[in-house]
Amino acid sequence: MLLKELKYVLAIHTYGTMAKASQHLYISQPALSKYIQNLEDTLNVELFHRNNGRLSLTFAGEQYVSAATKMLEIFDHLENELTDVQNAAKGRIRLGISTYRGPYLLPKVIAKFHREYPEIDLNVTEESAENLEQMLSRGELDIAILNLPLSLPNLEYTPILEEEILLAIPPDHPKVNLGVEKKGCKYPWIDIKHFETDSYVLLKPHFKSRQITNAVLNTINFAPKSVIETGNINTGYRLAANGYGVTFIPETYVNNSSSSVKAKVFSFGQPCTKITLAVVYKKDTYMSKACQIFLDMIKEFYMGTDKTLPENV
Q1: Residues 297/112, Cβ–Cβ less than 8 Å
Q2: In 10 A of CB 266, how many CB atoms?
Q3: CA end-to-end span of the chain
């Protein structure tokens, strides 16, 4: 009962409303509301402020969440150690991944992982990088696949891939032939200032790739004049591929895109713009053998050392 209580309070803190927390916990909203009300009555304190459906922590709630996070970390640590002692081929992995990487990474890796380790449960959470970092910090995930840099100091990582962020433009754009070869670039390089008057489709500001792109644009004093923001990386690429606007896209997405119409992609920057992908985990936390196995498989996937995985990844 205690573990359930801790997880319920942390879920409400994470998602901010009873409705979203109940969906995550797979229980009804009335049942969750009643459970929390009974808990507050038992403790004789209010854990949450209620404001038009939104819930935020009271001071007592902050103390509760801090203690709950530490208690769940201790339990998870013990559970992982006991599982490893029993059998390295059994276990559980709570994996976090960004919503745009999940569709092309997970089907390829999880199918192979499940064939080789059918008794290791893999629970996947697809969220924004910001939310995944918070969940790692609170011990709600074991590992996450994220772009660097990280925002929280209590996380560490293992780099698995360095890739370019590319400029994607319509295939019939009048400046499509202006790309040139440039040392250090895997793709034809193009001066982004050729596209000062174009419309841009950009990811929303909380995405890491958007933040890195913004930093590069700031160094060359370039600001797009017309911008549409989206929370789906696929939207920007497909718009560019179908003739509307230009966008920025990680090269692994381009290599794995299932779109029948392809945008033209170019390196840009000084000389190009790169981002590092890493497996991230909490500092000073026990990593189970199951997680280590999965980490090795992810490395094989991205570094191209596993010949049994599909090519063009």
Answers
A1: yes
A2: 26
A3: 44
Phi and psi torsions of 6, nearest 5°? -60, -45
Q: How far apart are CA 291 and CA 305, in angstroms?
A: 19
Say if residue 107 is preceded by a cis peptide, omega within 30 of 0. Answer: no
The SS3 of residue 282 is: strand
| DSSP-assigned letter for residue 77 | H
Per-residue pLDDT of the chain (313 residues; tens, 9 = 90+): 677 888 888 889 988 899 988 888 888 989 999 989 888 888 899 999 988 888 999 999 899 998 888 888 888 777 776 766 455 566 789 999 988 788 777 787 888 888 888 888 889 998 888 889 999 998 889 999 998 989 899 999 989 888 899 999 999 999 999 999 999 899 999 999 999 999 999 988 888 778 888 888 888 888 888 899 998 888 999 999 999 999 999 988 887 776 678 899 999 988 898 889 899 999 888 788 888 888 888 888 776 643 333 333 2
